[in-house]
Each structure stands twice: as C-alpha cells, then as structure tokens.
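Recap from last week: sequence in, structure out.
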Amino acid sequence: MYIRRTQTRNTATGESYYTHRLVQSLRVGTKVRQVTLLNLGRHFAIGQNHWPTLCSRIDQLLSPQKTLISLDCPSQVEREAQRIVAQLLTRQPEAIPSAKETETGLSPEDVQTVLVDSLEMSRPRSVGVEQVGLWAMGKAGFTELLADVGLTGPQRAAAIGAIIGRMAAPGSERALHRWLSAQSGLGELLDVDFETMSLMQFYRVSDLLIRNREAIENRLFSKINDLFNLPGTVTLYDLTNTYFEGEAEGNSKAQRGRSKEKRCDSPLLTLGLVLDGSGFVRRSQIFPGNVSEGSTLEGMLKGLNAPNGALVVMDRGVATEANLVWLRDKGYRYLVVSRERERQFDFNGAACIETAAKEQIHIQKVLSDDGQEVRLYCHSQRRAEKEKGISRRFAERFEAGLTKLSEGLSKPRTTKNIDKLWERIGRLKEKNRGIGQHYHIEIIPDDSGLQAQAIHWKQKPLDGTSLTHPGVYCLRSNETGWDEERLWRTYITLTDLESVFRSLKSELGLRPLFHRKEERSDGHLFITVLTYQIVQIIRQQLAEKGIHGRWSTLRDILSSQCRITASFRRPDGHSLQVRKATRPEPEQQKIFQALGIHANPGGVKKMVV
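Predicted structure tokens:
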C-alpha cells in the first residue's frame, strides 16, 4: 500500500494540479495490478516524509494483530489514518438481504470463524438525532429546496450539518466542526467526509442561507403546510431578543435596549417571528436590539398571503392603537392583550371555564358602545396569588426602607434634612416597582422647618391596580361573534409562542452571540429558526402518534444510539471489520416506529482484509 501523487488537468479551465490516491498492489493471476482504494484529493495535508508511516498505520488498523514494534505516529498522521480506514469501510457495499431472507425475516447467513479475544471496538459515532433530523428534512424536501436556491453539493452538506448540529449539540461554528468531525456519524449517513471540510465553509454557508432567507422560508412553510394541512386562520406574532458577548462594534444592529434576559449590560439583537396556530414559523425578521416592538408589525404581516379575516394574536408590546387601526383597515381580526392600566372585574355574571391544569378562570365579556370591539376581563386565582406575593415582598422592602429612615432621625450622623429625605424616599419608590404609589407619606418638620423630626406613612391602595384587583388582565378583540371561552382559549395559544422562544434560546443555541459581523449574527439566528422548523416537524409527527415531550428530552433519548466498528482476527490471518449501529433502546424504538424510520441507520458494512 502506498500513496501516489499524480498530475492532472481540469478539462473546463485547463488548470493543472496534483491529486493524491491511496493505491494497493494486487496480484491477479500472473500479473500485478495497482488498485486505487481511495482518492485523497488535491489538498492532502500529510507531508511526503510521513507517507510510509501513514500507510503502515493504515495496514495496522485494517489488520488488528499484535505487533512486535509499535509505530511512532504523529497525532496528525494518526487522525488521518483513522479517517482513511473509516472511509474505506464506509465505501463498502451495504449487506442487503435477499428476497427470501426478507420474507422470512432472517439475516443474511454470513458465517465466519473469528478469534473472539481479538475483538476491538472503534470509532463510535452518534446517529440517533442525525437520522431523525434527516428524516424530517426529507419530509420537507429541504435538500431539494437548498439546491433550488443555488447551493452546491458541498454547501448543501455544510448547511445540513449546521442545522442538525444545532439540533444535537448547540454551539459555535468551531464546536460544530469539531462535533461533526469527531463525534457525529452524520457524514456516514450523507456520504460526506466532514473531517476534510474546512471551518470557513460553515461560516460561508451561514452567509448564503441568510441571503436566501425569504425564498427558503416561504418554500419551507409551503411544504410544511402541504404536509400537515395547517389551518391558516390564526397568526401569532411576537418578538424576543438575545445578547452579544463583547461590544460587537462592527454590527449596526447590535444596540443596547431592554433585555428580556436582564442582560442590559450587553448589546442586543431582536428576532421577530410570525407563527401559524400549529407553531410553525411563517416568517422571521431580525431587527436592531433597541427596536420599538410596535413599529415592526406592518412590515412583518405584509405579503403573508393570509386568508381574508385571519386572526392575529399579539402581546401588549405590539398592540398599539396605530397597529390595531392598521389591522382593521387591512381586514384582519385581532386578539391582543390590552394596554390599559386600570383594572376592573365584576364576578356577578362572569363566565367560568376550566383549564387543562384544572384551574378555574372567571371571564367577564364587555361589548364597546359602538359594538365594534369586545373586552374580556379575566381573573385567575393562581395569578392573583402570585401578584399578591410580589406586592407583599415589595411592600415589606419599601416599609423596611422607610423604617430605617425614620429610626435614623434619632441617631447622630444620619440624614435629617427634609429635601434629602424626600430624595431617598424617591429612590426607594424607584427600586420597588411602583409600590410607592399606594402609600401616603408625611415628613414632620422641626421648628426650623429644615430638619425632620418624624416620618409617618400609611398604605392606601389605589383602585384599579394590582393591589385592589390582583390576578386580573384584559384581552381586546374585534371578533365580537365568539363567546368568552373561545376567545380565551385562542389567546392561550400565545403561550405556545413563548415556549418557542424558550426552545430557541435554551435548546437550540440562540444565545449568546459571539459573531462580530452583521451578516454572521443574522445567519446564526436564521439557522436557529430553520432548526426549530425541522424540530417542530418531528414533534408534530410524534404528537399525532401520542408521543409528547420537549426537544431536549427527545434529544437525550436519541443521542445514545451510535454506529461502531467491530474488528476481529480470523484464523487464516485476515481480519474482519463490521460497522453497524447499536440496537435501539425501547424508547428509541418507539420514536423510530412512530416516524416510520429504520432502526439501523446506515445499514451494515463489512470488509475482510
């Protein structure tokens, strides 16, 4: 076995270059023929002085016999030898049972004598999540979609690797490259060698995906719509943001704003999503971190081709009066969380419904004077207990601060100046989230009128607030024909969007951002959205079969299935290598059966050397 360096020419461009091949000499009858075992490509990285060592190490790995002298291999040569042996085994034809064997359910009868004590297990690679991800991509025609937008074969492989990597092991592009090369069997399932793919290819494919965002999103959702026959009557819209590690000075969208993760110390990037009622993304858009939520709605809904009278469900951050007027003018129905601050509720005549968690919700429906809008005042006992606890905590903290100021009046070297005391009381109000408005505070001056001799306070809750009406919130809609229960249960679908954001951030690696370029940051978010779409296809199909669960749970179940190579020595001096997947665990088998997936991804590969 040796490596041959051959000069060749590109017929299209006329460029001359050298290519490398792994060649073996075989005696055929009375003649010796050179057979190419593997094309190593033009960018073969091992220096010529290491070629003999590399070939010797490949021979050792293919024939795992006890050696008298161990080879002193540099780490780069060892990695390349392991990769080449894996490629040789992968390129073996799959062991396919005959028609008779298929009918009887028996395996092919390949009986060989081996030395049991010579067994070696090598190159374990995960394939559980990878196989399920490829199944979902196949259902959505994702590979064909990428080809239609102009991605080449290697670019498609990098895109699929980036998305399935985000499903299985969320991380940076560098971590993705390491995972695909050293831990995942995705390359075997795709017949792609990720170990020879450069890190830069994953950065560049991110750029290509974000440039084709609109075409990819539209075609992918159209395919999903055909696959599941989704109803188009409900549209959910909301925004979230994620933060950068570092200043991201080269990114104009990286702006400081109100972080939903309390990371106001870092620049932010905002992601807007339009979802259908089943939780699939219809459109995504990336905004600066300081964008006003209310200003984004019109641009996101334009061009959605939603049916006439589609219902838009939104949170209060987007539900400005201007947006509601625009929705009415465009023929949309809406169901939003009202922005009005004053609370009211009358239990007399309120309808009562029961949630899936056996909680009772009281709902009061009030029609506007002109009959064009309806308001739904809702009371939740669990929400009331939560708000009471929050108010109690802030009130105790506020009163503790007032007590400390009051006790300080009788001690030396403490603040007694009335103006300074009002400043401190103002800071107390600022720290305790509006609880100060429910207190009447009086400072009693001394004879000079400049110093305080006492501070008195009394709680006087304002009517129409969380202290007098805990657990009350208001929904607003121009759908006046629906009853209380239907309106409320439709609004609850907005919690599905919140769970989508949680999944994007905690399960699929949306946060944090380490990229400095705007296009790379946008690409990172878009790959996360595409990953969510593929995951949602899997979860939707499993839900139809009665299997429910978060993606993190399903991922943990699937991740333990691996492909592994078993090597034996035979008495005749040859070696037998068999590569196949581990037997699925019962929970894995249940998922595979629900999706109609073969339990042995990659099949069985055999090689005798």
